[in-house]
Amino acid sequence: MNRRMKYKEIILLKLGEIVLKGLNRTNFEQQLLSNVRFRLSRIGNFHVSILQSTVYIRPTDAEADARVTEAVEAMRLVYGVVVVCRTAECPKDMAEISRLLPEVCADALSGVSSFKVHVRRSDKKFPLTSPEIAAEAGGVLLEAFPHLSVDLDHPEMTVYVEIRDHAAYLHAGQLPGAGGLPVGTGGRGMLMLSGGIDSPVAGHMMAKRGVLLSAVHFESPPYTSERARQKVLDLAAQMSLRCGRIRLYVVNAAPLMEALRGACQEDLFTLLLRRMMMRMACELAMREDCGCVITGESLGQVASQTMPSLAVTSEVCDRLLLRPLIGMDKEEIIRVARATDTFEISTRPFEDCCTVFTPKHPNTKPKSDRLAAEEAKLDFEPLLRAALDGAELIVVGSSPRGEAEGRDRA
Ligand code: ATP
Ligand code: MG
Q1: Cβ atoms of residues 105 and 43 within 8 Å
Q2: Which residues of the chain does CATH 3.40.50.620 include?
Q3: For the whole model, what pTM was predicted?
Q4: Which residues are close to ligand 2, an ion, with C-beta < 5 A?
Q5: 196 Cβ below 6 A of ligand 1
Q6: What's the CA gap between 61 and 46, in Å, rounded?
Q7: SS3 116
Q8: Distance 397 CA to ligand 1 centre (A)
């Protein structure tokens, strides 16, 4: 029960109807419920149920009551949710609705001058029609807040009265959800996660299509610092708020880089390294049962992302390679990075690993036989194996039981 008010506050989540038709509805809903419970488990005790494509979230104790705001914010990040409503549950009785409505809407209506009432009457047995409910509710609000007027076309605030199977639900305004599909309904993917702006955005875009992420980051100490590594861990932690738990592998690529620098032609260095990273990402993808590898590459953005360069990197990938940013401008990518709260972390200054290794004149039209010839100059398989054997697995994002971030060897 709300401390100040005399009604039960609950959260309703609305799912995308169109999407539900195209997918196996039960799997979709069960995955969404499981994701919702996972996120709420960190906040408090809530009862979660689903009825007619609407998720009902009820605080089950006073502590959870006090954390409804936090729960609402967390629910806005859950992929698969289109609308989030913080609502008051009320008996299905017009007199009760009229009594509660001004109290429920008081805060939201205090700063506006116009409103309208939107009625959803899914219980067709309710004695009043939708227009009758709207007229009655509108009248009550006009009486309670004389500064208001009704504007059906461009109201500053919309008040919702929903007559559902078990109760009526009243709220002013509703919040947009993250949209997309529930994480876990689209298989698993191995994200190549650098500390830059692009790869976290690529991860979010695939998670939004339902892909559960594992990730790999290649570090190269002492050329990269502990701070650079921390930046990647912070990015993964931020991403886990939307993408769920992320199994992140951190692989030391320094010995491999040194071997490449010693043996191979400089102009191809970046691409040779990219191909080595891709091979390791594919191996980890297999271990993690990932159907795809995901990168943050965008056509033409840098020398290693020309069409021929992308082609020679794809060549060594033995599974589906997804590059969700391929046709996006940097400005568009930055917009998503800001919206998903990774931009600030990605732009933290730190020593870039590759400055020591970046070729002065990178080859932008690489030929795959030349790359293969360069690779033949060193026995790279044992280097890849050693790097993967030393990989550290860090599980980012807490479990449903609220455990802290776990850590174990890969
Ligand atoms: P980002 O902003 O994601 O770092 P970028 O524009 O800097 O991308 P590159 O450095 O060429 O581009 O990297 C292209 C892609 O290769 C990255 O988006 C990422 O998927 C992958 N990648 C690059 N460096 C690493 C790394 N150290 N560890 C894991 N993946 C990497
Ligand atoms: Mg980068």
Answers
A1: no
A2: 188-409
A3: 0.92
A4: 194, 196
A5: yes
A6: 8
A7: strand
A8: 22
Atom from ligand 1 closest to the CA of residue 301: 6
Distance 328 CA to ligand 2 centre (A): 16
Q: In terms of Cα–Cα distance, which of 272, 339, 264, 332 is closest to 301?
A: 332
Which pLDDT score, from 0 to 100, does residue 27 have? 87
Does ligand 1 have an atom closer than 6 angstroms to the CB of 342? no
**For the CA of 192, the nearest atom of ligand 1:** 30
Residue 342 burial by Cβ neighbours in a 10 Å radius (0-12, 13-18, 19+): buried
CA of 275 to the centre of ligand 2 (A): 15
Mean pLDDT of all residues belonging to the chain: 92
List the structure tokens of 352. Answer: 């870039």
Q: Does ligand 1 lie within 6 Å of residue 288's CB atom?
A: no
Cα 230 to ligand 2 centroid, rounded to whole Å: 15
Tens-place pLDDT, residues 118-165: 999 999 999 999 999 999 999 999 999 999 999 999 999 999 999 999
Ligand 1 centre distance from Cα of residue 75 (Å)? 30
pLDDT over threshold 50, residue 410: no
Residues carrying CATH 3.30.2130.30, the chain: 8-176
Q: Which of 117, 99, 281, 107 is nearest to 194 (CA)?
A: 281
pLDDT value, residue 355: 60
Distance 335 CA to ligand 2 centre (A): 17
- C-beta of 301 in contact with ligand 1 (< 6 A): yes
- Residue length of the chain: 410
Q: Which residue has the tokens 């044992």?
A: 382
| Three-state secondary structure call for residue 125 | coil
The CB of 304 under 6 Å from ligand 1? The reply is yes
Structure tokens at 251: 């692989």
Smallest Cα–Cα separation from 354: which of 304, 297, 307, 316?
A: 304
For residue 404, name the pLDDT band (cuts at 50, 70, 90): very low
Is the Cβ atom of 224 under 6 angstroms away from ligand 1?
Answer: no
- Give the fold, CATH level 3, of 188-409: Rossmann fold (3.40.50)
- Domain 8-176 CATH assignment equals 3.30.70.1290: no
Per-residue confidence (pLDDT) for residue 337, from 0 to 100: 98
